[in-house]
Structure to design on (877 residues):
């Protein structure tokens, strides 16, 4: 009952208050996801003994489908985003736009040409991300999934980093910077240390994690000691990290001696994450580490003492302090763990198959995307994993859309941002689609504490 | 579980005992001064360090022997630090801090200029001043947009997106219409479009304002990047060749030495930016609108009780912020460059830093923006004379300075009390 998200199968426990809210609401509104129907039915039966005839399963399912629950809002948000994306595709195509000049005379032209360009773009998005029906052979058939998982792995880490900090009441905008420092240390450890395979990989990952931890520690300790707002400090540290990266790349011993441009030596094979499905497919062990990290964060949040303290501080620091929890210590720890996660995400970019050397753009946007992933995943670990999958699929599909349909990859950024905007304002989606009210559609980002 | 009773978050830094804030600052300045004398003095050469009052090597110049200058200005910094440490009346502390910092910078410059390769031992001040203002210009507009938003209680992290959308829309509509003025209006409206989204989602739908700002930045990067690749790259002459504002010379003022050629032979945006700082400063602190804005930013409930329409005022201010930032974006595309993907490149976040560093006041933001612009210009200059200081570290300076300011090491920084808190009437 407490889990309104049957797709993610999230084992997250809701905080006690939410569970109570859920119960009271369940009483008023006896609906449940179809997957949970058995438990739901018994729950309703015990709470409302023979008050009214039980609605049929199908009815329950339909009722719930059109309620503003997490899944419905997410799906509709994706649809709305794609709709806006379609408009952008149309208005940016002069040939198609020209047909709108005589739309009153021959509307079929405008409709047909719009449909062609949009459907072709989105078909390529799908084929690049999930499955291409025309592909032949094992490797080609698995290639889209492999690409999707390759893009997913680092996003899981940065998404978890942001989500964990969120739960502790901190807004970690610094995942980008933490991942940057992480990728620098991981890469340097990857090419500078002469170590045997296996050990080398572990050392490189630890180095990346340590770099992220350091970059998370700074805003954490500043917040704890001086009350400096972590949003400001993490934004600033992101840029400090960027300049540090661009400086270190061109130093002797780091820069690739055979290259004149800003690129480091390549990471040695002994420090690279093994590929999972042969050398032709890019998917690597990073995705397994990502799942492991998700499990770890879920355990940490819901089963450990630290996780309890962290959530307590996030919900209400004053109450937590009164209860004897050291808020300062928790702030620092949260930021350090968030930094470790983001640092690992950064390491993925250079130890995996995405790149094997540092460049100024080596980590792309994974830190900022991590914020979107965390929000889309409703700041819950398994939700973050699902959201990262969606974003990874969009990235992978976007590449194909760019090369096959000539639609700029930037459209993916637009789609991602729009999805999160619609998710962040469920009231808007609810109003557009006239959804019935339901619990849990609200995004838990009531962090509004100002600077 | 430790139950230590330390003050968890030190909001009110009570200066206790001997080590007041002024004394700590003094100690830091003294250390900087000693460092400048010892290090810069030792590294500087006996060459003349010439600060020319023109754009080239020639003309009148302020010249000083490098070693002498480095040591002299270092001593000034040390003296200012010592005075602060010894304890001076409070009204002098800011002045002394300023003198100390300027002395440090001058000492540094004496070293760098005198140690430059032969023939480069000069710093053209007109260039430096002019470029400082140019580099600061988007920061000024951006920070003013931040002031308008945040003084009324809406956090504006979307400055980057507003600048970018303004730059894009100015370039696009300027090119299509062939008129700078149409471009300027379109740029302002482009910035206001991002602001509108921020306002609606933050005020109407109560979405976390920082979240919304971040997402809007990405949206602006995505939309402008997408349309840039689809339209401007395929047909640059039609979509990306906006006309540009020329330089307007102001009579009389343009003949002032140093400042005249640097500032008063400039384009519309510089005049507009400086004028806006003045107008917004006066409006914020001297008019009814300003009083209402500040009260809504500090305590919206109280303002509401007195009959101020809190939400309407916030909508209006956020939209005005978008107009201002949009014009700031146009200062790129309608005066200097044609549009390129993500051309703002983080300036919006430095503007945010300038806003915070300038303590949410228009004049403070102007000074902070100029400081950051100067750091930027210094990095370029030092790169040109082949300095040993990596330009990346100078580029970090604004961000590090902001972290120090926020951490309370350089004075006290306090945001409007209701900044970022949605107001629900009820």
């Amino acid at each position: 009952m407490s889990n309104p998200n049957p797709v993610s199968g999230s084992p997250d426990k809701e905080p006690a208050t939410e569970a109570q809210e859920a119960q009271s609401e369940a009483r008023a509104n006896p609906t449940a996801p179809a997957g949970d129907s058995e438990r739901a039915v018994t729950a309703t039966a015990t709470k409302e003994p023979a008050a009214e005839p039980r609605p049929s399963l199908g009815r329950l399912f339909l009722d719930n489908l059109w309620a503003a629950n997490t899944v419905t809002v997410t799906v509709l948000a994706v649809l709305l985003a794609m709709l806006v994306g379609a408009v952008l595709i149309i208005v940016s195509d002069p040939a198609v736009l020209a047909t709108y000049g005589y739309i009153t005379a021959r509307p079929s032209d405008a409709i047909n040409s719009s449909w062609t360009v949009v459907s072709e773009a989105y078909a390529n998005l799908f084929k690049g991300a999930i499955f291409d029906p025309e592909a032949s052979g094992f490797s080609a058939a698995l290639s889209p999934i492999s690409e999707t998982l390759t893009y997913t792995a680092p996003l899981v880490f940065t998404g978890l980093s942001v989500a964990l900090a969120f739960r502790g009441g901190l807004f970690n905008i610094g995942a980008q910077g933490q991942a940057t420092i992480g990728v620098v240390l991981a890469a340097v450890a990857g090419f500078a240390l002469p170590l045997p395979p296996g050990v080398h990989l572990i050392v490189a990952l630890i180095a990346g994690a340590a770099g992220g931890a350091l970059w998370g520690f700074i805003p954490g300790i500043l917040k704890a000691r001086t009350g400096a707002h972590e949003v400001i400090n993490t934004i600033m540290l992101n840029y400090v990290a960027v300049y540090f990266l661009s400086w270190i790349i061109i130093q002797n011993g780091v820069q690739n001696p055979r290259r004149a441009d800003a690129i480091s030596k390549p990471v040695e094979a002994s420090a690279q994450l093994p590929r999972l499905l042969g050398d032709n497919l890019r998917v690597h062990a990073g995705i397994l580490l990502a799942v492991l990290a998700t499990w770890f964060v879920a355990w940490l949040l819901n089963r450990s003492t630290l996780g309890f303290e962290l959530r307590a501080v996030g919900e209400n620091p004053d109450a937590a302090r009164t209860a004897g929890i050291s808020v300062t210590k928790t702030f620092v720890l949260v930021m350090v763990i968030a930094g470790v996660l983001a640092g690992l995400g950064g390491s993925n970019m250079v130890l995996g198959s995405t790149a094997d050397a540092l460049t100024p753009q080596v980590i792309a946007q994974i830190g900022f995307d991590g914020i979107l992933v965390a929000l889309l995943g409703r700041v819950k670990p398994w939700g973050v994993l699902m959201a990262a999958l969606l974003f990874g699929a969009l990235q992978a599909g976007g590449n194909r859309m760019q090369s096959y349909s000539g639609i700029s990859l930037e459209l993916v950024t637009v789609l991602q941002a729009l999805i999160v905007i619609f998710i962040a304002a469920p009231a808007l989606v609810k109003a557009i689609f006239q959804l019935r009210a339901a619990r849990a559609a609200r995004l838990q980002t009531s962090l509004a504490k100002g600077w | 579980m430790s139950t230590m009773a330390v003050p968890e978050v030190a909001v009110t830094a009570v200066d206790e005992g001997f080590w007041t804030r002024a004394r700590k600052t003094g100690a830091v300045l003294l250390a900087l001064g000693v460092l400048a004398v010892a290090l810069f003095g030792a590294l500087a050469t006996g060459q003349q360090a010439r600060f020319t009052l023109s754009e080239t090597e020639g003309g009148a110049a302020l010249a000083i022997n490098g070693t002498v200058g480095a040591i002299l200005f270092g001593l000034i910094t040390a003296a200012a630090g010592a005075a602060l440490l010894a304890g001076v009346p409070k009204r002098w502390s800011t002045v002394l801090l300023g003198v100390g910092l300027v002395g440090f910078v001058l000492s540094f410059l004496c070293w760098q200029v005198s140690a430059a390769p032969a023939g480069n031992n000069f710093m053209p001040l007109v260039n430096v001043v002019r470029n400082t203002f140019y580099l600061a210009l988007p920061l000024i507009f951006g920070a003013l947009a931040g002031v308008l938003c945040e003084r009324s209680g809406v956090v504006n992290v979307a400055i980057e997106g507003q600048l970018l959308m303004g730059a894009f829309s100015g370039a696009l509509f300027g090119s299509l219409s062939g008129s700078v003025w149409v471009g300027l209006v379109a740029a302002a409206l482009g910035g206001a479009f991002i602001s509108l989204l921020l306002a609606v989602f933050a005020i109407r739908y109560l979405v976390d304002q920082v979240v919304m700002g971040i997402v809007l930045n990405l949206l602006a990067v995505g939309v402008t990047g997408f349309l840039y690749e689809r339209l401007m790259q395929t047909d640059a002459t039609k979509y990306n060749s906006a006309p540009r504002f020329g330089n307007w010379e102001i009579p009389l003022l343009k003949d002032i030495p140093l400042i005249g050629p640097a500032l008063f032979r400039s384009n519309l945006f510089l005049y507009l930016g400086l004028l806006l700082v003045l107008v917004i400063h006066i409006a914020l602190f001297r008019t009814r609108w300003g009083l209402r804005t500040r009260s809504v930013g500090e305590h919206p409930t109280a303002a509401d009780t007195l009959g101020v329409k809190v939400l309407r005022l916030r909508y209006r201010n956020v939209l005005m912020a978008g107009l201002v930032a949009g014009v700031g974006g146009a200062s790129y595309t309608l005066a200097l460059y044609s549009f390129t993907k993500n051309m703002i490149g983080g300036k919006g976040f430095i503007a945010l830093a300038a806003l915070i560093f300038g303590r949410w006041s228009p004049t403070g933001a102007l000074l902070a923006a100029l400081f950051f612009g100067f750091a930027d210009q210094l990095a370029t200059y030092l790169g040109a004379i082949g300095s040993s200081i990596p330009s990346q570290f100078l580029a970090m300076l604004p961000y590090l300075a902001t972290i120090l300011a926020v951490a309370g090491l350089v004075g006290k920084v306090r945001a409007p009390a209701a900044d970022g808190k949605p107001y629900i009437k009820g």
Q: What stands out?
A: Chain B touches chain A through 64 residues (CB under 8 Å). The radius of gyration of chain B is 23 Å.
